[in-house]
Amino acid sequence: MSRIHEGALKNLNIIIKADTMGSVEALKASLEAIRNEEVKVVCIHSGAGAITESDIVLAQTTGATVIAFNIKTPNKMLQMIDSMKVELIESRIIYEVVDQITRLSKGMMAIKYEEKYIGSAEIRVVFKLSSAGKVAGSYVLDGKIVRNGIAKIKRGGEVIGESVIDSLKIVKDEKSEVAKGFECGIKLKDNVDFVEGDILECYTKEVVKRD
């Protein structure tokens, strides 16, 4: 399983150039230890001495970040790095490089969402309109119902269908949200076989914040 997971990880490619091979090896060991559940750091090239044109070409080809540790980058190379839009990290302190690469690895992770419950409504009347399809005439029991929210239709406590709230109206007026105690018409984007007495629970998706 670990081999399967390893193969599914994204690579954050890096090129390390430093003042000495001792610095290169210390930095390589620290950086290749950085990983999360989606991304691992891979050093595709390293060496002692200044950044060269071939380093920059390799970085652009592989999408690698170039790390210049405890060395000065010539102006000619800086101009080439800028024109070829290559990511460059310059530092004399290992933990600063580790921190920046850690941030880059987190930035490569897929955005994750979690569902947040915001309200529910009882479907009291089902209208079948030729132009709009089925509309759920509903009474908001708690919280609120919002347009573009995720609707989960429950019957006897079990979810029988799920869709997005495409339209939300009070009489003929389109609303962005309807609060507890109000009646409204709810049209779903997808065809869900709801009936009178079903409960519609409304959720929104929120980005999961990472440390």
Structural class: alpha+beta
Helical segment tally?
5
**Care to count the β-strands?**
12
Whole-number total of structural domains = 2
- Classify the beta-strand content into a percent band: over 45%
CATH class value of the largest domain = Alpha Beta
What proportion of the residues is helical, as a percent range? 10-25%
CATH level-four homologous superfamily name of the largest domain: Translation initiation factor IF- 2, domain 3
Radius of gyration, whole Å: 27 Å
Distance linking N and C termini? 26 Å
How would you describe this protein?
- The protein is α+β, with helices and mostly antiparallel strands.
- It folds into 2 domains: 2-107, 3-Layer(aba) Sandwich (Rossmann fold); 113-207, Elongation Factor Tu (Ef-tu), domain 3, CATH 2.40.30.
- It is 25% helix and 46% strand.
- The protein has 5 helices and 12 strands.
- It has helices at 2-8, 21-32, 53-62, 75-83, 94-107; strands at 10-18, 39-48, 65-69, 88-91, 113-129, 133-146, 150-155, 158-170, 173-174, 177-179, 183-188, 199-207.
- A 6-stranded antiparallel β-barrel has the order 5-6-11-8-7-12. A 4-stranded parallel β-sheet has the order 2-1-3-4, sandwiched between helices.
- The longest helix is centred in the middle third of the chain and has 14 residues, at 94-107.
Overview in brief:
The chain is an alpha+beta fold and 211 residues long.
